[in-house]
Task: structure prediction
Amino acid sequence: MTGIRTFGKELSRLPEQLPPELRGPDWVQANPVLIQEHLDRALAMPTGGWFAIDASSAITGAPRPYRVAGHELVVWRVEGALRVAPDACPHMGARLSDGHVREGRLVCPWHGLELADGKHGAWCPFEAHDDGVLAWVRLPEEGEHPTARPILSERPAVFLDSVMRMEASCEPRDVIANRLDPWHGVHYHPHTFKRLRVIGIREDRLVVRVVYGMSDRVGIEVDATFHCPDPRTITMTIVDGEGTGSVVETHATPLGAGRTAILEATLATSERTGFRRALKAAWMIRPFILKAQRRLWVEDAAYAERTYELRQSADRTSSPRIP
Ligand code: FES
Ligand SMILES: [Fe+2]
Result:
């Protein structure tokens, strides 16, 4: 799109001639073999057994049910500390997420069994972690060496965060593959991306120069990288321009067969003097960030579902190459 005015910090000049793989129309550059290679690299990374459950702020003292990787879980807090356990009472199987917390104990709704932090028969809480933005659980995972903490990308020291959660009929790899294809941005989300070029392809990351539209005529231009710190996460980091150091973490958590939760955490930062003031008004700004995130993910979830559908399809005769 031409005729868009950008503001903010001026970015470094690009070389006159980009390498051959970064020339040509987007549909030529968006090479399925290349996307597959990046996806394979991500899928081979360790997870430490950790799964993102939801925004930290979504978990309170009231027990809530979640499904993660086929496990029915109850998630709650005791004096601020995150707790995650199987959602079936060890007595006769009642849903503990229908219970309540009394004096730090989870109380079963059927016969009042009180469960503390430790084991009760076969019932045993899972390892949980709250990183201040997201709530995590560590589950036994085949072939994984458990780590003490989730494997996170670097985050800014000071940030305004918002977390969007949505579910889609696909697998986590479809969500990651969608993000490993930045070339669709301008074509598929013209309301948000006014210009987008992939300007670097490294072994472990893609580098893009993108203009986010503020209106039809004005936008903010930044350079950003996409990389996967683990097989179920892809992180976009602004590396030059307005908001350098801001990250958008997209976590894909398997729920059960063919169903995935997309958790997108935006951690926005800025060196501008007004940013600290903006943090105080986070409650006012957050709904706008969430609305923009959701709008993009409604479309990207459809993309991921389409990829999943094609991969599932028995008739591959006319199918394109799907990561
Ligand atoms: S089912 Fe929980 S106490 Fe009986
Ligand atoms: Fe997209």
About this structure: The chain has a mean pLDDT of 92. The domain at 50-138 is CATH 2.102.10.10 (Rieske Iron-sulfur Protein). The helical segments are 26-29, 32-43, 172-179, 185-188, 275-280, 282-312. The longest helix spans residues 282-312.
